[in-house]
Amino acid sequence: MTSLQNQIILITGASSGIGTACARIFAGAGAKLILAARRLERLQQLKDALIKEFGIEIHLLQLDVRDRNAVESAISTLPPAWSNIDILINNAGLSRGLDKLHEGSFQDWEDMIDTNVKGLLYVSRYVVPGMVSRDRGHVVNLGSIAGHQTYPGGNVYCATKAAVRAISEGLKQDLLGTRVRVTSVDPGMVETEFSEVRFHGNTERAKTVYQGVIPLTADDVADVIFFCVTRSPHVNINEVVLMPVDQASATLVNRRTEK
């Protein structure tokens, strides 16, 4: 198993859900963390908690990955001690709405495409060249079962996650000949703020998504990511699709009357 001690790991969307779970598991392994998100107050709370528990070094970036100039500035002005990023976790992403395509919200589409596709591309474009020049590194892109199977009302969200899958594969091919690894981790149902964001803060509607099901947790996904990045340097886990036992596909879910 490859040690993560003192490796520099950049996690986008680190202020909640899978991003926060990744920060915790990597902190426990002694990594140095660059935590990026829009909500600086949340990041500061996470930083304080992780330093208290693990005594590691953490650098915070208040960053909206949709803003290309901000991404360029954030990466290019990293202090020298933080600039050689070993692992990039492209976790920032969201889903908006569950409308039929012909009734969809333009703003919802913009939010998803700008964050899930363009944001991932911007961060990768500014981080990966350094990995190539050092001939080492690992990019982990957070995809989704939605990138494999389209479901009713999922149209544009599914399209963005299919794009993540294609970008991951394309990047892996472009990096052939280097020792930079690329992994796509594609979960099914995970109980985070995901559904709350999708339904624009409607917590009651969000709860119904997981009713009668034991979904994956953010820690489950972080555990899989941790496995992928700690394999021997000659091993690349291309793609992992993980779902709860109660889910067989994007649309086939077994709902129990009681958990």
UniProtKB/TrEMBL annotation:
Keywords, sorted A to Z: Oxidoreductase
EC numbers on record: 1.1.1.276
One Pfam family cited in the UniProt record for this chain: adh_short
Oxidoreductase in keyword set: yes
GO MF terms held by the record: serine 3-dehydrogenase activity
Keyword Lyase set for record: no
Top-level taxon in the UniProt lineage: Bacteria
InterPro entries, per the entry: NAD(P)-bd_dom_sf, SDR_fam
Family from the record: Belongs to the short-chain dehydrogenases/reductases (SDR) family.
PANTHER family, sorted: ALCOHOL DEHYDROGENASE (PTHR42901)
Protein name per Swiss-Prot or TrEMBL: Short-chain dehydrogenase/reductase SDR
